[in-house]
Amino acid sequence: MRRQRSTAQPLGWDLSHWGRLRQIVQVFARHGLSSFTDRLGLYFGSSRSSRSDQGSTTERWAGAAPPPLSASGVPASLCRALEELGPAFVKLGQILASRDDLLSPGYAAALQSLHQHVAPLPFSVIHSVLTAELGSALSDFTDISEKPLASGSLGQVHAARLKSGEAVVIKVQRPDIAALIKTDLTLMQHLARLVERFMPEARPLQPTLMVGEFARGLGGELDYIREANNIVRMARNFSAVPHVVLPEVMWHLSSSRVLTMTDLSSLIPLKREVLLEAKLAPELIIDRAFKAFLKMVLIDGVFHGDMHPGNLFALSGNRIALLDLGLVITLAPALRRSLLGLMQAFVAQDFHRVVRYLSEICEPHTQVNNDALEHDITNAVAPFIGSGQQGLRTSVLFWDAIKIATRHGMALPPNLILFFKSLSTFEGIGAAVSPGFDILSAAQSFAAELTTDLYQPQNIKGQAFMLANDLLRLMEHGPFELRRLVKAVSGGDLSLRVKSEEVSRLARAVDRASGRVALGVVAGSLTISAALGSGAPGTLGLVQMPAISLLQLALAFLMIVLMLGSMMRR
After folding, report:
1. pLDDT tens digits for 285-307?
2. Which helix (H) or strand (E) holds 550?
3. Which domain holds residue 446?
4. Model's pTM, two decimal places?
């Protein structure tokens, strides 16, 4: 049966976004991806003409399932469509590229190649943004280079110099980009709900949850004041680590669309030949960079969510520099402890504990058989850990374990997606900088240092203080709450609310059964009443029965039919 075409506005969608939604559907159709939008119930007349050479998608797939997500040739077309739709869709594609625990290899490989050729804006446009944002403070600059140091989808960076002679860099947001991103994020949230509804094979990706997390992260990248606060916070966390350097924020020359920072001169790319030429130690630099990342994740609970070679550099003295902190992820203490335990169990090849920590970290959406999960992970991962196989990456083994957990009904939280993505990125950088780099050994060394640090007297003292404070509050409020409980019990005012799906099902079953019993009793009563009110004994003809008895028999028959129909439907 062919789905009815509709161009009506979807329920709850803002009319101001309708034009952009139409553009998105047309771009997908132009790249041969109209089967996706058709499955979501999004149709536009003009999109049909743009795919005339392919025929109507609805006609081609009427009465049959649309092509699966892993269809041949679709990944490359999807990349082209995302690039045409702009920065929000490109960044979403880059995040999806890290989900090779769920995506087919073709999709993961294609999305990892996503890039955007963004031509720099004319300096006159940049200068107008600076004037609007900084006003008279713009006179603090003696020189601003018209040629950008870098140009991205959200903004571009220019070198400048202050009256004091200090070299700085200015990050300037593209005009009107915030409004477009806001519209796209709103549409993505609506589309994610449609994907979950109409594309069951995409549900393990948790589209609405992923887009929500993505929207929060991208919103942070659009607010340069938030990025400035991230820089200050990260610098504070590394204040006792001299080999990790972050730029200093010039607050009086910054706003939500302009960020001015000290220029970290002589940034050196993390390439082995370049580092050796600069007389630096590649092995030491990559080890320090990776341990800095683990410190962010496991100790500070605040980590750089967009770690790649464009945001991570070396400095003289074997130091490392962290840049571009628009996307920062925060992890709760309990999640950090579980993540540390997972890494330690993985190193120790204790797959029973691996499954236990995965259960704490992931979000099960079905009943999980932990024994079967442990068996599958052990057989898939254990033979390769510590095997020394050439080209084998530990991050791949982590992803393999997560893929298996996903197949068993577990879902990785969105805030950990970027952690594992960064882990994989680090391993790739490390292999290029230092061929002998092993994230498993580095993580094991860091975990040992961290465990030792956790049991230092000053840390135990702090934990004991928090525990004593909790116990004190319990002692303070406990007697009062206990008196309230005793009073409620003695006065008969205590009520217990139990909410269970099984209890609800039982209640519905009892309700149905009692309804059927009631129908049966009424039908039997009507039949008996009709018999008592009928003609003389031995008379069988219906015509000799009073009208009221005939009506009673008819009602009884109807009730019996209804009861049998209900039982057959169940």
Report:
1. 998 999 899 899 888 888 888 77
2. helix 547-569
3. 269-453
4. 0.67
